[in-house]
Design a protein that fits this description.
The complex is a heterodimer of chains A (964) and B (228). Chain A has 964 residues and is of the alpha+beta class. Helix content of chain A is 52%, strand content 11%. In chain A, strand 8 and strand 9 form a beta hairpin. By secondary structure, chain B is mainly alpha-helical. In chain B, helix 7 packs across helix 10, helix 7 packs across helix 11 and helix 9 crosses helix 10. The longest helix of chain B is centred in the middle third of the chain and has 27 residues. The chains are: A alpha+beta (964), B mainly alpha (228). The interface between A and B is large, with 79 and 87 residues.
């Protein structure tokens, strides 16, 4: 038989990979192995392949092989003994795909517990066991009156188990099945208690993910009357619980995992995960909404036979609210349930706390009045409602609410040794770095708060300027092995202290104290730390305080340099400090990451370095540092950030850099440095929309940074969104008035010219800047030459060239020799001998530059144009093509070199090819250049295109870029 | 498949079939290249270059007449390609080459698969991703065939009892009640579905071997790969 195919073969193509990844977190309900081999429709591929060998005898009907594995044995797990019925059957409280829960006796404490035992077959799989342990840990962290406590975990003979509080009573599902729907008052009480539990889980970064009536116990206690005042509700079975912040746009679970949960109660984003909708507390809020609906109506709002049915209804059908109305649900409660069931998570209550407040609003008026009185009367309530409205209004979709935002202001250094200031700065930085790992928070760090000195602070003004609701202030004193750290969190609106704490501790506790502060701030803000992040906080970055000192000193250096020589010197000093740090503590991952980044910068600054400096192989040193960090902590977010930076700066592998950014974002969701890097990478990949989003995020996280809004503006230019560019520049001018004038205005005006094809704005701005004397020589000359070219004024060109002290002019790192412009002047005069002589001279300069830097595609493109001008047609074309290949992975250079290629074609009598190239490139983002690139202004003004200008195709092309 | 189509059908159909072939089988090649240490963008380029090379030389049509397994053939060809073409730097035109398959949207997922997998070396990783690809195709194929027979609902109801998944399956009784059939009928249906899966797997694997005698052995091999 040959390898035959047929017409019906799946046309899904690439989609196969998407689902091949699967999910370590859930197990197949049939074979009980982790769902790591998934089919396109969520089926387990292991089960599929087993069908090839299936026979009737083999297949039993059982889909839940649980208790039968242990008949007749003593059912003892550590100190726990499983309770059996008189006929010896274990008393099962519940069972799922992975584990079974039994009633058991704690033989030491002499009380009954619920014992969850993982199935033997599952336990054999290490990843499943690890997951079970994680689940137990997640549940153990949650100590709350409305959550069943987990008390112990154990393993025995290949099985594992954990014990949790036994809740006597019945599940909500059993209750509804037994007695029918509950009253609105009782349902509300259930909602309030579950909301409290969700709030607690949220502050530990845990999402339940399987909230439904059968996972909520109605505890029977003394005095239980079934009335709302006395019931106690407990949330059980955190089997699908997951650390919320660990999920990211790349989060394995929600992107590829297939579905986990119970269809009718699952949120839309749980059913069909998308990259921008993470599964967080708002998903649990949706499930609670369905649960409350079930309690009130005895059914769920959307019935469906399959997951897809339910999902389609969730998204497209109107909620059958008449069911709630028929159940006499009060209006306030009804509309709250409606909002909990919004398909868009941003339209639901955003946190456990917000939900709790809203539920309380719905309680009957007599009860509510009591609460309002506590708050100091109706006015207070009104203020709260207005404030809530205001917050919502200012929230961006998917972003942390304003209330969950904080700026970490510079701490005061009270140490007797004032040179210790780096320690104070370091502590402040580390706390902001730790807090920025918390997905639900917006944290503004030192880059943007540096200017707010401790002496005179207007907290409300700072809040407004930075767009935050809270600030953290503090002071640090350290001497002779001791330290005292005082921190206080202030509310910017009320100007009151939210929280204040003083830590008097030995110096070696510094990491523990930082961790405590972070935890405290996070929980005050209702943010959440994922399990992995909490764990990371409890692991000090190093145990060697001297090494930590060195690391802090290295981090403390400025990040902006006026010239490359200063940059090299500073970075070299940083490298020395970090080298010493890792020599003291060879397992100091963060120091290795910083070291790799510093070497990467040195690599970047290599041009113009002295012979001695050039002899150091910074690329290899960076790679060594990364390798060490990788061995120590392969999943560290900082490592991924450092790797992204390395791929970006050193190896220029932008696609790989983008992947690393995605991995880094998982643990660094609010990191301005990462977002800036992400934007820069996206620009080079020609993904201008991604770049714009990343720079917007970076700007929000670091609002006082001058760099990020500039980059954002730049991204707008490349996307040819000139109005957005101008808006952003106007914003920069307001934020940093000292910026305007000079270079800033010139740049802005040049973009206006690029957009409009009108040279006037650029000319005016340059004139003003020159007379004010704040334009560099290079810029003054190159812009001046540009105007002369636009005017097609050969004498003006020659005048400028002979007056200039410079031999060549830099534009975006490519050096244009004087002779290149002389050739234009000669051509404009009709002096072809002069033109050829000038081009020949220019060729020598450019060829020299290429000997030093043979991979420079931009320079090679220039050489190709020179050769075209000299009539070396074949050389010119092959050089231009080679140049295009060299820059193909750099979206900033590629459009510029494409224009070089088009010029080569135009000058060698191949206009058809020139138009083919130009037509392709005007549909893509523009490049970084002021001389020739696919923009309206350049096509209108630049004489380089003159040989094409009379062609109607050129007119049409220019028209396509014309301002609308 | 592709290969036969290229002889019988119009050139356009043949080209479509070849492209579909590449689209179906790129993930194992990509996994192999990544495990071999190539960066993601190089692995993408190499995959595209390799397919271009196969198509250019009409290697696939020749291969269809030869003995052996598609799995070993593709891996062998790729290794040969790397040794003879790429490493001497002769044919790869970085980025300038033709885009045979669209990989862009799935690269991040393919990367995550590498991170998560227990794949030890490049060849094992090729085989594992291969196994998943073939079995997934069998499953998709069956789904499409049943859809054409108007049995989508039937499949959706029964599937959880046969091929599992992450969501808890209802009991046979529940499903029988929902489908409004006696439990014995349901059991017969389940048996029929299992048979259909078995046929579909055999058919799919048959397309990747040259001798029907090899189907069983290849299936066993795929099974072992997926169970690790």
């Amino acid at each position: 038989m040959s390898w035959d195919n047929s017409e019906t073969a799946s046309a899904k193509g690439g989609a196969v990979v998407a689902s091949s990844v699967g999910n370590l977190e859930s197990v197949c309900t049939r074979c009980h192995l982790p769902m790591t081999q998934l089919g396109s429709a969520g089926e387990c591929l292991r089960c599929v392949v087993r069908m090839a060998f299936w026979s009737d005898e083999e297949e039993g009907d059982s889909t839940n092989p649980t208790v039968e594995s242990m008949p007749g044995q003593t059912l003892q797990y550590g100190q726990f003994e499983i309770v059996v019925t008189p006929d010896g059957t274990p008393v099962e409280l519940g069972s799922g795909g992975m584990a079974t829960t039994y009633r058991a006796r704690d033989t030491i404490l002499d009380c009954d517990v619920a014992l969850k035992v993982i199935n033997r077959r599952v336990a054999a799989h290490p990843s499943a066991r690890a997951r079970f342990l994680r689940e137990a840990r997640a549940a153990a962290k949650l100590r709350h009156p409305n959550i069943a406590n987990v008390t112990q975990y154990g393993e025995q003979g290949g099985e594992c188990y954990y014990a949790m509080e036994l809740v006597e009573g019945e599940t909500l599902e059993a209750r509804v099945k037994r007695e029918g729907p509950l009253s609105a008052a009782l349902t509300l009480e259930v909602g309030i208690q579950v909301a409290r539990a969700l709030g607690a889980a949220e502050s530990h970064g845990v999402v339940h993910r399987d909230l439904k009536p059968s996972n909520v116990m109605l505890a029977t206690g003394p005095g239980e009357s079934g009335e709302s005042d006395t019931v106690t509700v407990k949330l059980i079975d955190w089997g699908l619980a997951k650390a919320a912040s660990a999920e990211s746009p790349l989060g394995v679970d929600h992107t590829f995992g297939g579905f986990v949960g119970t269809p009718a109660f699952a949120s839309p984003e749980q059913v069909v995960p998308t990259t921008d909708k993470r599964v967080d507390t708002r998903s649990d809020i949706y499930s609670l909404g369905v649960t409350l609906w079930y309690l009130l109506c005895g059914r769920t709002p959307f019935l469906g036979r399959t997951l897809d049915d339910v999902h389609i209804r969730q998204l497209h059908d109107a909620l059958p609210v008449e069911q709630l109305a028929a159940a006499r649900v009060p209006k306030c409660f009804l509309s709250l349930i409606k909002s909990m069931l919004a398909a868009d998570p941003n339209a639901r209550p955003q946190s456990g706390r917000e939900l709790l407040a809203a539920l309380r609003q719905c309680q009957d008026p007599s009860r509510r009045a009591r609460r309002v009185a506590v708050l100091g009367g109706g006015v207070a309530l009104l203020i709260i409602i207005c404030a809530l409205g205001w917050w919502r209004f200012h929230e961006r979709p998917g972003a942390p609410s304003l209330n969950q935002s904080i700026a970490i202001l510079p701490f005061e250094n009270l140490s007797p040794d004032k040179s210790d200031s780096f320690f104070t700065v370091g502590i402040q930085d580390e706390i902001s770095a730790d807090l920025s790992r918390v997905g639900a928070l917006k944290v503004i760090g030192s880059n943007s708060t540096r200017s707010y000195r401790p002496e005179a602070r207007d907290i409300s003004k700072i809040g407004r300027e930075l767009g935050v609701a809270h600030v953290l202030e503090g002071s640090v004193w350290r001497a002779s092995g001791k330290m005292r750290i005082t921190v206080r969190m202030m509310n910017c609106r009320s100007n009151k202290v939210d929280w204040l704490e003083t830590y008097d501790q030995p110096l070696e506790d510094v990491f523990a104290v930082q961790g405590e502060i972070t935890q405290a701030v996070a929980s005050h803000l209702q943010g959440s730390l994922s399990e992995s992040e909490s764990a990371a906080l409890n692991v000090p970055p190093t145990r060697d305080l001297k090494a930590y000192d060195l690391y802090l000193r290295a981090r403390n250096g400025a990040g902006l340099w006026s010239d490359k020589a200063t940059a090299r010197r500073d970075t070299q000093h940083k490298i020395e400090l970090l080298d010493e740090a890792v020599a003291r503590d060879p397992s100091f991952v963060l120091a290795y990451c910083e070291l790799a980044k510093a070497h990467g910068r040195m690599f970047e600054f290599r041009s113009g370095a002295s012979a001695e400096e050039s002899s150091i192989d910074h690329r290899s040193l960076a790679e060594v540092a990364l390798e060490r960090a990788r061995r120590l902590q392969p999943s560290s977010g900082e490592l991924h950030l450092a790797q992204a930076s390395h791929f970006f700066r050193v190896t220029k592998d932008f696609e790989q850099a983008r992947i690393e950014v995605g991995l880094a974002r998982r643990s660094l969701p609010n990191n301005a440095e990462l977002e800036t890097l992400a934007g820069n990478i996206a620009l080079r990949l020609g993904r201008s929309d991604d770049a714009i989003r990343a720079f917007q995020r970076a700007t929000a996280l670091d609002p006082r940074s001058k760099k990020n809004p500039y980059l954002l503006a730049y991204a707008y230019v490349l996307a040819r969104r000139y109005q957005d560019y101008d808006r952003t520049m106007a914003h920069i001018a307001t934020m940093f008035p000292e910026k305007s004038g000079g270079d800033f205005d010139v740049q802005r005006a040049f973009v206006q010219t690029e957009a409009s094809g009108d040279p006037a704005p650029a000319r005016t701005a340059l004139g003003a800047a020159v007379s004010a004397g704040n334009v560099s020589d290079n810029d003054r000359e190159i812009y001046g030459l540009l105007f002369a070219l636009w005017d097609r004024d050969p004498d003006a060109i020659s005048r400028r060239l002979s007056a200039s002290k410079l031999d060549s002019f830099l534009d975006f790192d490519v050096s244009y020799p004087k002779a290149w412009f002389e050739a234009f002047a000669a051509r404009l005069r009709g002096d072809s001998a002069g033109n050829q002589a000038a081009l020949a001279a220019a060729r020598i300069d450019v060829a020299k530059a290429l000997v030093i830097d043979p991979m420079n595609g931009r320079a090679l493109g220039l050489l190709a144009m020179i050769d075209a001008g000299l009539g070396h047609r074949d050389d010119a074309v092959s050089e231009a093509r080679r140049a295009s290949e060299l820059v193909v992975k750099n979206a900033l250079d590629a459009p510029v070199v494409a224009c070089d290629l088009a010029v080569v074609y135009a000058w060698t009598g191949q206009p058809d090819r020139a138009f083919a190239v130009l037509n392709e490139w005007i549909a893509r983002p523009a490049g970084a250049n002021s001389l020739n690139q696919p923009s309206y202004g350049d096509f209108k003004l630049n004489p380089i295109w003159d040989s094409l200008r009379s062609d109607p195709r050129f007119v049409a092309l220019t028209q396509r870029l014309a301002p609308r | 498949m592709v290969l036969l189509a290229s002889h019988r059908e119009s050139p356009q159909a043949a080209e479509r079939a070849l492209t579909q072939f590449c689209q179906d089988y790129w993930p194992p090649l990509y996994a192999f290249l990544r495990r071999r240490g190539h960066s993601s963008s190089d692995a993408q380029d190499l995959t595209q270059g390799f397919f271009a090379h196969l198509l250019e030389r009409d290697t696939l049509s020749r291969a269809s007449r030869e003995k052996g397994r598609l799995r070993t053939f593709l891996l062998g060809s790729l290794q040969h390609f790397l040794a003879n073409e790429y490493d001497r730097g002769q044919t790869i035109k970085r980025g300038g080459g033709k885009q045979i398959v669209s990989m862009d949207d799935y690269i991040v997922q393919a990367e995550a698969a590498l991170v998560m997998g227990t794949l030890a070396d490049s060849t094992e990783s090729f085989d594992q991703v291969w196994a998943a690809t073939v079995v997934r195709r069998a499953s998709d194929h069956l789904r499409d065939t049943l859809a054409a027979e108007g049995k989508t609902k039937w499949l959706e109801e029964l599937k959880p009892l046969v091929v599992g998944g992450a969501a808890a399956a209802p009991s046979q009784e529940e499903i029988a009640a929902r489908m409004n059939v006696p439990i014995s009928t349901l059991r017969t249906s389940l048996q029929r579905l299992r048979e259909r899966y078995r046929e579909s797997l055999r058919l799919e694997v048959a397309r990747t071997v040259s001798d029907p005698g090899e189907i069983e052995e290849e299936l066993h091999y795929l099974y072992r790969l997926l169970m690790t």
